[in-house]
Amino acid sequence: MYNVFCLAFSFLFFQYSFSQSVNLQQLLEEEVLGFRGDVGIYVLHLETGEEAAIHADTIFPTASIVKVPILVGVMDKIEKGELKYHQKLVYRDSIKYGGSGLMQFFVDSTETELSVLMSLMITYSDNTASLWCQALAGGGERINEIMQSLGLEHTRVNSRTSGREDIWKKYGWGQTTPREMARLLVGIRKGEVISPAASGRMYRLMSNIFYDEYALSAIPPHIQTASKQGMVNASRSELVLVNAPNGDYVFYIATKNNEDQRWEEDNEAYELQRRISGLLWRYFEGDG
User: Fold this and answer.
1) pLDDT in tens, 195-224
2) Residue limits of the Beta-lactamase class A catalytic domain (predicted)?
3) What does CATH list as the number for 25-285?
């Protein structure tokens, strides 16, 4: 029994010593070497405060990750009583938008409700539902006011937003920095965005993601995560908060100007996301 105890203690001490001797910043910098494009990364362990950053304050396109600020905008309206979570709505073909999602295949005059739009927007990254949610939230202008009130200087909705036509041409639907978007998700996790109840609802929605073959695939399936993915030809990015046994950690991996614009599973950015996600899990959890 004594020998077993000593062996276990030695393993734990080695694991602790290893985690303390490895520099996370250096590991990440080595991981992005050779990537054919621009990379931004922000990592924060919520309990220890340990962080690492690579171009974390550089503006990147959000692609579909802009749907997190849109979600905040809708929840703000619900909190104020201007919308209801189960509010009945009627789908019209006039709002159909292509790309990702299921709502574009709805039959005209289909009855639905706001909760369905919000779920489709986050879980399946539904573009039609997201644009509808953006309008219901008061438009990009109102959502950007909320982002400003949260102290987010660069996180903005650009598409269909007055005065942002030129910047839309540069960044697309939305823009952010790795540090700011991670900060927004941490605020949601802590119940600080809109209200504890609103934050809880948003976190539940972000914990139910269809696109689990990228960064999420490197995290054990029994571990809860809240996330959002954003993907267009030259920009593939992911936002993830992991409810890990040794404490929550958040990371944002942003890319732009990517040379590899294929939509295959071995796309260079997808591989980078998987590697970094696995690296962070091993670093913080010492598992595998």
Assistant:
1) 999 999 999 999 999 999 999 999 999 999
2) 40-255
3) 3.40.710.10
